[in-house]
Amino acid sequence: MQTISKPYLLNSEDLTKEDINLIFQKAKYFQDNYKPGDRYDDLKGISVALAFFENSTRTKLSFEIAAKRLSAETIGFAASSSSLSKGESMLDTLKTIEAMGVQIYIIRHGSSGAQQFLQRNTSGIILNAGDGKHEHPTQALLDNYTLLNHFGKLEGLKVTIIGDIFHSRVARSNINVMRTMGMEVKFLGPGTLLPQIYNPWGVEFCKNIDEAIEWSDILLVLRLQRERMNSGLLPSIEEFSKYYGVTLERISRKPQLVVMHPGPVNYGVELDYKISSYPNCLIQTQVTSGVYIRMACLSLLSQYLKN
Ligand code: CP
């Protein structure tokens, strides 16, 4: 059986280099061979629930497209219109969906660790589509797959992750995947949004945006997550943009520099709108990669249901 080492996808830390390379190979196969209208049989007869307790555009839609291209039956679950509003627990909700024959769950939740808790209480397969500030493993996989396609390698590449690192599950997942693949990672951001005290990865900080541009092959710019912030973390949005915002003027002296952002973007805050037409801005490519990476993850994990 060709699959990844764990029968779920909860944390980037669980992924070995071999797992990541296998996911990339499978994604490349789908990217090279998929034609509009194609349906693969990988998930034929399997029901997949998309349970999003937090809003999403890219992750939800790309998982849904991926599951449908693999012939799964997909069930959308909107927390706001469910019996959760009547007091049913998250676990009872999962058990209810499980009793209907669902075997794969794609879950986004605002609480860090929610999917890990649910996985311990189901025989189904859970894919983490983002849990609080903790992890977003498929985002890190699609970011690194995009970089592999752009540079032809990952080993030795230098990335600065810029902005709101403290609240970012994308940063956490990317650090693990990037380091596993032999890349170097630094951070840049205001002190209140950097994990200064709790920096388990021992990541170095850039002093300013100019140093980040000089050192890096890639700037991974993050969204300022105002919905997860307490007040007082930033003096003003204008000041954040002035010191940490990535603009076309700032990066123009290094035309080979790659700019990425997981989306959604606050244009005018962390990223200048003009960057969207910069040739090495890979934001749209990241979105496209997301479908193939999620097809690959679903296809590989479905092997566990067939044995
Ligand atoms: N990158 C990302 O997770 O985007 P969505 O919130 O739109 O899914």
From the structure above, extract its key features:
single chain, 307 residues, alpha/beta, Rossmann fold, five-stranded parallel beta sheet, 36% helix
Description:
With 307 residues, this protein is of the alpha/beta class. It folds into 2 domains: 12-135 and 290-305, Rossmann fold (3-Layer(aba) Sandwich); 137-286, Rossmann fold, CATH 3.40.50. The chain contains 10 helices and 9 strands. The strands form 2 sheets. The chain has a 5-stranded parallel beta sheet with strand order 7-6-5-8-9, sandwiched between helices. A 4-stranded parallel beta sheet has the order 2-1-3-4. The protein is globular and about 55 Å long. It binds phosphoric acid mono(formamide)ester. Phosphoric acid mono(formamide)ester binds next to helix 2.
Oligomer: single chain
What would you report as the Rg, rounded to the nearest angstrom? 19 Å
The CATH homologous superfamily of the largest domain is called: Aspartate/ornithine carbamoyltransferase
Highest-level CATH class of the largest domain = Alpha Beta
Helix content: 25-40%
What number is the mean pLDDT?
Answer: 94
Strand order of the largest sheet: 7-6-5-8-9
Number of beta-strand segments: 9
Strand portion: 5-15%
Main sheet: strands, sense, barrel: 5 strands, parallel
Query: Hetero groups bound?
Result: phosphoric acid mono(formamide)ester
What is the fold named in CATH at topology level of the largest domain?
Rossmann fold
Principal-axes geometry comes out as globular
* Number of alpha- plus pi-helical segments: 10
- N-to-C order of helices and strands: HEHEHEHEHEHEEHEHHEH
Q: What distance lies between the first and last C-alpha atoms, to the nearest angstrom?
A: 8 Å
Return residue spans where pLDDT drops below 50 for at least 5 consecutive residues: none
Q: How many domains make up the coordinates?
A: 2
Which architecture of the largest domain would the CATH scheme give at its second level?
3-Layer(aba) Sandwich
